[in-house]
Amino acid sequence: MIVNFLKKQMGERNTNLRSEVLGGVTTFATMAYIVVVNPLILSEAMGPEWTSALMVATCLSAALATVLMGLFTNYPIALAPGMGLNAYFAYTVVKQMGIPWEVGLSCVLLSGLLFVVLAFCRVQQFLVNAIPEGIRFGTAAGMGIFIAFIGLKSAGLVQGNPETLVTLGEYTRPPALLAMAGIVLIGALHVLNVRGSILVGIVAVTVAGMCFGVSPAPEGVVAMPEIPAGLMGQAVMHLPEAIEVGLVSIVLTMLFVDLLDTAGTLTGVGTAAGFMKPDGMPRAREAFLADGIGTSVGALLGTSTVTSYIESASGVEQGARSGVANYVTAGMFLLAIPFFPLASAIPVYATAPALIVVGVMMVAQTAHVKWDDMSESLPGVVAMIGIPLSFSIAHGLSLALLIHPLVLALGGRWREVHWMGWLMAGAVVLRYSVV
Q1: How many domains does the chain have?
Q2: Band of pLDDT at residue 226, cut at 50, 70 and 90
Q3: Please, what is the average pLDDT of the chain?
Q4: Which of 23, 89, 303, 304 minimizes the number of CB atoms within 10 Å of its CB?
Q5: How far is 259 from 135, CA to CA, in rounded Å?
């Protein structure tokens, strides 16, 4: 029965098992950093004694949400606790505002439950389907520039500068040189039409880094971490405190950022994979439902907001087209729990070339922008530039959603604005006015 179900999913997307396994493994390889990074960020607010338990919570929530996305939508879009929202939880909510982390988890749970309610009401589906094509393609390209920029930063090829904001990094350092070699290797393999070029590049750079002593070899193969028993249920126990009026803004902020991040990822990855239709993205409601359930369960396990990952584009580029790739990625997250030493041994400079190459490929979506129509091209470029410069999919997409109806209305074409366009623009104004 399971085999037939998997065959049905692959048949629906006209793909094969090899492509799905390769894509699923590649997606995990580019996301593996979250297994280490998320616990480290959250433990700064919750205490270092929770680091091991947080790693388990991260892997379990990611695996569950990723499987649900595959089951509900048959899309190869993986989910995990989101970067940005975990920092908001740790540094703003807990450390800056002084809210106990248990109450913070309750806020995450409330935002997840609201997300589920909105999904059933098809609010998010209307949102995705109402996004104009110019913004869709601009968002895809902006995400490409964004992840390429993250890759350049992780590789040390670019760095911050107080006068120019960003400048050339220390490109002669070993990590940067290995990253550049990885970029060339993946690019060359891609030119040769070698399947799995991205995954080969990640493994090759990782092994080379260990051989040259740039990064340490794994300390072991298997290590059983602590089960997050002390974290489980804290979100429910402190719900009454989180429902207080003073915490409403925190819940709404988590909800809004997650909504826009997921909408942006679905739009960008969906466009790159060919899932988007002229009238929007099929099964958008189910995709948001998987996100909301993932966030709710993640809060119960003890981690911050779960959201869709743009790194899924790397798996799509390797041929992933169905939910089968998600089951592979989810399995890798589960394997990462006992094989934590191996997963944590993948250095950021090894995944950087993958992000850069995938980012370049996603920028190709700009070819579909209607450049002769300013109402389409201007918001598209705003999303394209705003996402990497604000270092946030949510911020860049918000700017584009605000500009689009205003340009049309002032240009005398207000009848062309979808009613949801005005609603989204109003939500953007409210979000940045109140929070």
Answers
A1: 1
A2: low
A3: 86
A4: 89
A5: 16
pTM of the predicted protein model: 0.75
At 89, which amino acid appears? F
Stronger pLDDT, 332 or 392, i.e. the higher one: 332
Burial class (CB in 10 A: 0-12, 13-18, 19+), 311: buried
The answer to whether position 362 is within a domain reads no
Q: Which domain holds residue 62?
A: 2-357+370-434
CA distance to 2, 105, 167, 309, per residue, from 268 (Å) = 30, 29, 27, 11
Residue in the structure block whose two tokens are 């390209």: 141
By three-state DSSP, how is residue 326 classified? helix
Q: Quote the tokens at residue 153.
A: 């930063």
Q: Which of 137, 182, 130 minimizes the C-alpha distance to 155?
A: 182
Residue 363, in any domain of the structure: no
- Does residue 43 lie in a domain region? yes
In tens, the pLDDT along 407-421 reads 999 998 888 887 878
CA distance 82 to 90: 12
CA 156/CA 146 separation, integer angstroms: 15
Residues 6 or more apart in contact with residue 349 via CB below 8 angstroms: 154, 155, 156, 175, 176, 178, 179, 182, 205, 209, 214, 215
- pLDDT per position as a tens digit, 275-288: 887 777 788 889 99
Task: Report the chain's terminal Cα–Cα distance, integer Å.
Answer: 49
Would you state the structure tokens that stand for residue 133, as one six-digit string? 């094509």
Q: At what angle do helices 33-46 and 101-120 cross, to 10 degrees?
A: 130
Assess whether pLDDT exceeds 90 at residue 299. Answer: yes
Task: Count Cβ atoms below 10 Å from residue 96 Cβ, excluding itself.
Answer: 11
pLDDT bracket for residue 322 (50, 70, 90): very high
Question: Strand 158-161 to strand 165-168: parallel, antiparallel, or no bridges (unpaired)?
Answer: antiparallel
Beta bridge partners of residue 306, listed in sequence order:
81
The answer to whether position 383 is within a domain reads yes
Please give the sequence-ordered ranges of beta strands (E in DSSP) within 189-345, or none if there are none: 306-308
